[in-house]
Amino acid sequence: MLTFRSIRARGLDVPLTQPAVTAAGTFSTFPVVLVDLQTEEGVIGSAYVFAYERLAMKPLATLIEGVGALLVGRTLHPLAIERLLQQRLRMLGVEGLLMMAVSGVDMAIWDATARAADVPLAVHLGAAPRPIQAYRTLKNMTPHGAAEDAARAVAEGFAGVKVKVGGPSVADDVAIVEAIRREVGEGIPIMVDYNQVLTVAESIARGRVLDEYGLVWIEEPTLAHDLEGHAAIAREVRTPISVGENWNGLVDAARSIGAGASDYIMPDATKIGGVSGWLRTAALAEAHNIPLSGHALPEMSQHLLAATPTAHWLEYTDMIETIVLEPMRLRDGCAIVPSRPGFGIEWDERAIGRIMAG
Length: 358
Prior knowledge:
alpha/beta, TIM Barrel, 13 helices
């Protein structure tokens, strides 16, 4: 067995070659926190957490190292440690940045135990590595720019594309979808993501227009916490509704599913409780026969989806491809789970050093 020794968390604002434009704002970098857990036996576990905003990197890194300090000398039984942390931190409330910190530690623990077993995490979880259909999230919100991005994504081998929408009117949204469809043809699935910018009434009105375009799903049309609002949208719009990236743990997942807030779900491993929280959410999805996709974090999500009975789609966002030695691979439109132990993430320390120095 492995024994927890220490943990290091490094904030890194990873530059993007192309800014990501969304209805919520434009992002020129992906702020992440890199997590490296050291065991007494010399095995290292690695993971990363998407911090969303640069201002969150430092407090998130501090929280990760603080959570790690509670575990010094403990045996790395992931589910036992998850229970310990939930009990220890209950009065503080395991949500928000603290949930992301706990998730980051959990993922690093699972990575370390899989590395110690010398197997990919998917195998460590009892799954057989299998291809997971993957789509790329586009970075442009103009019809011409989104169409060009979509063509590149298809040329790169992605099976589908997701575009951010939420312009001044539904006509703007339709123009983007139509431009992509003309560019990629009828055989490529298209998803749209509103990033929570619409009211419930607007969501229903726009959704009814978009129903004519054969979309795979409409993602987070209104505020993430508005379960009743999303349920109303799901009832009134024929296109499936997808939510879940902003759930804080299993309770949020259960409440959302119980409210009928969406047709599809897409938890984020850094907000749902890491690998441990994901496994419980996947079981909940299986019990309700709900297709489950992963939000971002493709290098880690591909392993988790391989162990998910109702696995649907893998989202690809290029958060860390410039700072890892071996980026994620595609074959026939699907992500290929690597044969390397754990998540298979190995940092390119030279690239990380150049970003930190710059």
